[in-house]
């Protein structure tokens, strides 16, 4: 079962920032494949979602792009800026706190038998 596109939308920037924080510079396709690998194929990021998120993070100053010639092609690598490192840590903390709150909300509902 793949993760809902709607659920992914709100976490995509955090995922990107966290991956760049842990892996240094990465290019777009590499990011999508790493997410697929780490989630056992449950989260599949499409180019139509990835590149707008990358461009927004770049415009906000959280990541920087570096173009590298690979043969006759140009590959664009993304790296965290100093500001991006701070935002990555804050985003991960906020997401974990939100997930903890959601887990509590959902698992304490007696209708689900998990109280």
From TrEMBL:
Record domain Transcription regulator PadR N-terminal: where: 16-88
Gene3D superfamilies in the cross-refs: Winged helix-like DNA-binding domain superfamily/Winged helix DNA-binding domain
Protein name stated in the entry: Helix-turn-helix transcriptional regulator
């Amino acid at each position: 079962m793949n993760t809902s596109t709607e659920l992914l939308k709100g976490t995509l920037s955090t995922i990107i920032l966290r991956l760049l924080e842990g892996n240094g510079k990465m290019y777009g396709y590499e990011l999508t494949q790493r997410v697929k690998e780490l989630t056992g194929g449950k989260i599949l990021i499409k180019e139509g979602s990835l590149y707008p998120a990358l461009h927004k993070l770049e415009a906000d100053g959280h990541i920087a792009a570096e173009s590298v010639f690979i043969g006759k092609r140009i590959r664009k690598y993304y790296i965290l800026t100093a500001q991006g490192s701070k935002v990555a840590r804050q985003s991960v903390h906020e997401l974990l706190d939100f997930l903890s709150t959601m887990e509590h909300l959902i698992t304490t509902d007696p209708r689900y038998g998990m109280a």
